Amino acid sequence: MVLSSSNGGDRCSRWDPETGREVWSIEFYAGGVRGKAVTCPPGGGAVLASANEDGVERLDALTGEELSSPYMEEVGTVWDVAAGLLPGGRRFFVGAGHDGRVFRWDAMSGDPLGAPLTGHRGCVMAVTAVPGRDGTAVFASGDENGVILRWNPETGERIGNPLTGSCTAISQITSLILPTGSTLLIGTDSDSTLWRWDASTGESVGEPISLGSEDPKVAPAVVDGAARLFTSGADDMVREWDAATGELVGIPWTGIDIEALARADGSTVFATGSPDGDISLYK
What we know:
This protein is an all-beta fold. The protein has a domain at 2-164: YVTN repeat-like/Quinoprotein amine dehydrogenase (Methylamine Dehydrogenase, Chain H). The chain is built from 1 helix and 25 strands. The chain has one helix at 70-73; strands at residues 2-5, 11-15, 22-27, 35-39, 47-51, 56-60, 66-67, 78-85, 91-97, 102-106, 124-131, 137-143, 148-151, 158-163, 170-177, 183-189, 193-198, 209-210, 217-223, 226-232, 237-242, 248-254, 256-262, 268-273, 279-282. The strands form 7 sheets. The protein has a 4-stranded antiparallel sheet with strand order 4-5-6-7, with no helix packed on it. The protein has a 4-stranded antiparallel sheet with strand order 11-12-13-14, with no helix packed on it. The protein has a 4-stranded antiparallel sheet with strand order 15-16-17-18, with no helix packed on it. The two termini are 15 Å apart. Keywords: Repeat, WD repeat. It comes from Streptomyces albiflavescens.
């Protein structure tokens, strides 16, 4: 499944990666698509959450049909959304609130999982689920002051100390399970710098990486047994980095908004956009 949003952010579409055919397309009116995430609750098919100016819309990812989600739709501006797995197989969404709150919802019903979480001293700009070795996830949230907090999604309790390093707004957080079994937490900021931490200990990993292009996007993946970070930015170039050393690998290629798509057979397909609105897939 490939999902895309337009440059203006007001339209979200699903594409068949085998045929290139558009399966469905929906237009949003509440400030466009801020961030999106897909998960598959037990017995519930695939559910898409799309963050926007009013809250989060919940859709059937296969058909594009809107699902009733009153507890998600009217919480105020949500800048990002992520999906994860709780012990027992329950799926959840987490949202980054403009007002500094972090929201948790049951992915199947859209009901809140406890009260919104507080602890950030400014807008929460990015969230991600951080999968553990058993598949269940903790999650991390980053704010406009460059601070990242880690949370237990089931209890809402904070985990460890805040992760620091950046002095500017966190624009994206993601994670990667390394071949060694440990998990790397990756963040980018508004200065186009990439930061790495050990997701369990919170310790910094290596030196910050200057990406050299505005509006960076990171797609982590393990390729042929090697941990890699693929980045894109406003210069329309995709670059490959060694996730452990931070060194540049290979030759850049053309593309924007890089995404790494996991396939059922364990392989990875990369999707990039273009200024003209085209989507390209690479194996």
